[in-house]
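[AMINO ACID CHAIN]
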Amino acid sequence: MELIWRGHSCFVLRIGSFRLMLDPYKEVPGLPDIAGDTVDAVLCSHGHRDHSYTDALHILGGAAPFGCERIATFHDGEGGALRGVNTVHRLTAEGLTVVHLGDLGHRLTDEQLAAVAPCDVLLLPVGGTYTVDPRQAKAVMEQIRPRVTVPMHYRDGERGYEVLEPVEAFLSQFPAELVRRYESNTLALTPDMPRQIAVLQYRG
């Protein structure tokens, strides 16, 4: 199984020849729109344009080689009063569980946590303003206790919204030996991956 970061909160999860895209975006500063890609399936955490741009994708359909659970959460810490609802996707395949938190805006309740955990790989928003901030993201990570955490939805140089925190604001809360910086936007997911925060590099 491979995880490919397309920038912002968009990932492609590749299982054999099957390509699942998560949270395709439109009009994120510094990033080209996700347009013209061919994928087998798409999942969106909510309807905002930087997470649900499916119009320009070629979606093939077909039987998905993974299980998918959807957990209802909120886009803010006010029960959705500010920005509405958010769906967490919990995906299972090849003995691994990958959780995409979308634009989660709060710590998980006990009921939500029971539905999300355990997981092997956590795709975690860390930039604040529209989601949990770096400190809250750390608390959510400690709730779920994944083996691998992949930060997303942060300011990356000229890429991303100016109001978002850079990834360093999140990483600075952890010992350096826990952080692994990759030169690629692709991460091979295996059952024996060591515990880590995996920082992927945007590659267009």
Summary: Residues 134-144 form the longest helix (11 residues). The chain has a mean pLDDT of 95.
